[in-house]
Amino acid sequence: MKTSLCLGLLLCVHVAAAQSAGKNASQRNDIMGMVSGAVLLSSSGEYNGKWMALNLLDGTNTLGWCSPGNKPLPHTFIIELAQPYHLNSLVLDNTNAQDSGYPGISARAVELWVSSTSSESGYKKIATLEATQSARKEFPLPAGSEARWVKLVVVSNWGNKQYTELMEVEAYGSPTGAPVQRPPLSGAYDTNYGALQITQDGSHVTGCYYNGDGQISGSSDGRTINAEWRQKNGNGTMLMTLSSRGDFLNGVWYAKGELQGAWFGTRRSGPQKVCDDTRNTLSQQLKQGGRAILYGIHFDSDSANLRPDSEPTLRQVMALMQSQPGLRLSIEGHTDSTNTAAYNLDLSRRRAQAVVDWLVKNGMTAGRLASQGFGSSRPVADNNSPQGRALNRRVELVAQN
Q: Which one of 130, 153, 161, 248 is least enclosed by Cβ atoms within 10 Å?
């Protein structure tokens, strides 16, 4: 069972691929999910990097959280929501907990505390819920359950003396206020993979780590970063969310389409420059690998209509081609797998062509551009979690010889 080595007090490296949650087919927005901007601020502990606390917010129930061995109950988690919410219901999911091998390991009594004051104070207990062993259960919450921060306290399990597991937590409700303005992402963070330097210019995000040997490039809405990471020995994707105070990044990273681990860190107050990210331009990315992911290009849902917030990234592509008159590009469209293969292929082709059309309309020679769509056939993350699907919905540039 549990053999991985923990790399941090809060979150640890996670080497297992996330799989299907087996959740309610409803398309309701889980406001406690990572993609919705929820941030796990603290946990009282976890067994190791495979059974990490962040799994509670990853949108799946194949892997969850497990307590450290023989650590007595209770176990506590502090979760920050993206904005103030009225909470209608909470889901406690023990599906796929290891009750067959570890009888009674499923969480049982869970206290729900909420605060609108801060992550440290102002909590009031609004419910004590009894989770179902090895199953998912949704609980309606009392009227007036307002929250910006949620504290979950696992008080008991179904009888196991060594471990407690909980596979997923979901919350549903309606916003009661505007999204919280976060400080700029730009700065240096001490992470579980060393110092990470981030520079934000509008929605465009670049960064470096490993003293500049690692580079990131992507897009942010001011809260969540979708980005590509690159090193000499490979590349992949990442998704991170910034806490409302701007002091903590909470996220995951992928390689070869599979979830590899958590990537998290605390903003440092000292020197902000930790590496040189001047190499991290669109031109350099194409020189290094022949292709680059453009997470700053966005479309309306199930549509090839470019959203206005795509223009800064599109103008970067235009500037690149103007600076290199001999450069020819193929624009590739990629989707997640939430529809049929035929639908996704058609949508990806139309989206790639929409980018080409924009560039031509704005003065680029059509002969220097081509478009291709690959649907969901070339994922860069798993398609079984919300954050994986978000990373798979992308446009790529490919330099043509």
A: 161
